[in-house]
Amino acid sequence: MREKSKAAYMISSVAEQYSLHPQTLRLYEREGLLKPSRSDGNTRLYTDEDLERLEVILHLTRDLGVNLAGVEIILNMRARMEAMQAQIEEFVHSLNSELANRPKTMRPEDRNSLIPIIRINL
């Protein structure tokens, strides 16, 4: 994987790097799979994050034979899973903080207060 930078790449260099026609990149943008930023002159500019997403799209389409509708579903599911993972990590962090602040000895009836209700928004 390449080192992260704030560089932005023009459509022609991205198309050449990934052996794609620029129209394919435009199609991915129309389908909502890629969202490159735009320069003041309205030129598409692809970031390293855009290129990582493009690599996932190309793996799904070229290697696994997934159509664009399937790619969209998979990318949406990945985004939801990443959001859920962040929620879980936040929950674990807050639970660890809560446990660190609890007294070392607890009465048995107080132990139930350690079991919170986990709610993950889907």
Could you explain the architecture of this structure?
This protein has 122 residues and is mainly alpha-helical. The protein has 2 domains: 1-66, Multidrug-efflux Transporter Regulator, Chain: A, Domain 2 (Orthogonal Bundle), CATH 1.10.1660.10; 78-122. It has 4 helices and 3 strands. A 3-stranded antiparallel β-sheet has the order 1-3-2. The chain is elongated.
Give the C-alpha Rg. Answer: 22 Å
**How many beta strands in the DSSP annotation?**
3
Helix segment tally: 4
| Unreliable parts | none
Tell me about the largest β-sheet: 3 strands, antiparallel
Global outline:
elongated
Encode the helix/strand succession as letters: EHHEEHH
Strand content: 5-15%
For the residues shown, what is the average pLDDT? 88
Strand order of the largest sheet: 1-3-2
User: Terminal Cα separation, in Å?
Assistant: 30 Å
The number of distinct structural domains comes to: 2
Level of helix content? 40-55%
CATH architecture grouping of the largest domain:
Orthogonal Bundle
Structural class assignment: mainly alpha
Overall CATH class of the largest domain: Mainly Alpha
Give a nutshell description of this structure:
This protein has helices at residues 11-17, 22-30, 48-63, 68-100; strands at residues 9-10, 37-38, 44-46.
